[in-house]
Amino acid sequence: MPKPFEFSVNNFAEDLILIQCKSDTLNQNPLIFWQLSNTLLDSFTDIEVIPGEDSLAVKINIIKNTRSQYLLDLKHFLSTYQPEFTKKSSELITVPICYDDEFALDMNEILLSKSLSKEEIINAHCQVVYQVKMIGFTPGFVYLGDLSDELILPRLKTPRVFVPPGSIGIANKRTGIYSLGGPGGWPIIGRTPTNFFDAKKEDPLLIQPGMRLRFESITKQEFDNMLVN
């Protein structure tokens, strides 16, 4: 029987418990907390989960049970939990992106910051095959990594109140898709005409953690044609 992985389980807030693991476990399976979140929801009926890249927050119901009991139950559950290691041959999808000035809201600042041409920025963004790391922080936001070192930038000093749906941003080692739009603090490099959200489906978001994704540059005319079709 494989040796169980070591998780730490600690109080995080009055009704939150934080689960973490060693970095070597994350290196072997970067989607471990996404997998664990689904397993916990199947095993516990009175919790909510908030998965991140390097931790998992569990929202507990302190009316139904004590925090100490939740801690014991989670530690016992994790003592035998075996995550499934993902294969690198996961599904690869191509996402069209238009870097036209109308959509690349922060392109000028990115060009000045990186001392690169627009063509070099586009090539650097499109040459990487990204992995979908997680879905958060707002509904439908897709975290992708890792971004090329030459494109690494900090978040905006002043976040935008609203970012249009389909906008694609970059920040630190990540690039991300604002599938549904909403507030955002990442520099915006372009926009995709592809709608990844279908409310009629049981699982409305068409992109899931573990998928691989690459961007393909398109013209403004191609963007408009895709929207019509």
Quickly list its features.
seven-stranded mixed beta sheet, Gyrase A, domain 2, 229 residues, elongated, Cyclophilin, alpha+beta, 24% helix, four-stranded antiparallel beta sheet
Overview of the structural elements:
Helix content is about 25%, strand content about 30%. It is an alpha+beta fold and about 230 residues long. Strands 5-13-6-7-10-9-12 form a seven-stranded mixed sheet. The protein has a four-stranded antiparallel sheet with strand order 1-2-4-3. It has two domains: about 5-80, Gyrase A, domain 2 (2-Layer Sandwich); about 90-229, Cyclophilin (Beta Barrel).
Which parts are unreliable, with pLDDT below 50 for 5 consecutive residues or more? none
The description of the largest β-sheet is:
7 strands, mixed
Please identify the top-level CATH class of the largest domain: Mainly Beta
CATH architecture assignment of the largest domain = Beta Barrel
Along the chain, the helix and strand elements come as EEHHEEHEHHEEEEEEEEH
**How large is the count of helical segments?**
6
Strand content: 25-35%
Summarize the structure.
The chain is α+β, with helices and mostly antiparallel strands and 229 residues long. The protein has helices at residues 23-28, 32-43, 67-78, 107-114, 118-126, 220-228, and strands at residues 7-13, 16-21, 48-51, 56-59, 92-98, 130-135, 141-145, 160-163, 167-171, 174-178, 182-184, 188-191, 212-218. The chain contains six helices and 13 strands.
Which helices and strands appear, and what pairs or packs with what?
Elements: E1 7-13, E2 16-21, H1 23-28, H2 32-43, E3 48-51, E4 56-59, H3 67-78, E5 92-98, H4 107-114, H5 118-126, E6 130-135, E7 141-145, E8 160-163, E9 167-171, E10 174-178, E11 182-184, E12 188-191, E13 212-218, H6 220-228
